[in-house]
Amino acid sequence: MAGKTVPRARMKDVISQNAEIKHGVGHPSGDGGDLRHLHQPLEDGTREKSSGAHADDAFAGDSTVIKAGDPPPAEKEKPNYAPTGALARETNTVVGTSTVLKYNEPPESRLPPASAQWRMYVFKGDQELEKLDLYTRSCWLLGRERAVVDVPIEHPSCSKQHAVVQFRYVEKRGEYGDRKGGVKPYIIDLDSSNGTMLNGEKLDGRRYMELRTGDVLKFGESTRDYVLLLPPKP
What we know:
six-stranded antiparallel β-sheet; five-stranded mixed β-sheet; 11 strands; mainly beta
């Protein structure tokens, strides 16, 4: 009312109340507007925490928040599923060594029949040095790497794993369209440094060539002749 003097104690209460409301503290119903009990010291001398949460608390400790002026986050490296050759190296590694085989036998690999007793004779000039019974195995690896080869070649011009004699089952279509199959020997050069010669002609790398009785092989610059012979049937 006009002209009425307000007691100083009541004025302090009003100022305190307005200050609390201004800072966002809710007004409890039925307490006459006195909010001082919300901030009264506890028995241990501390003050109660207000239940109201600040908007900034929702991002507290979040390191992914990007601030203005910060550089964009680096893109995560995507997985690379391209073949590395590691699996092939692991499966082709000779047990107990670090040597990796350059050749695997194909699905058509076969042991020649007992009736086809193929042999390889090694000559130096007119002198016979060695005879190999090729029919006893389906595959023969030739080269300088004694730890893995079946037929060692000592000449320095030859590669560690130079070439392979492989018996393969191959079907061929006859004159009247009928199919005939058989096991025959083939030679394949393993991309050697100085090549493989068949009857005086250099072979392409990684390509099978059928061998016939009387064929002569040479490896690198070695002067030795490797002659294939199929003895006639008795």
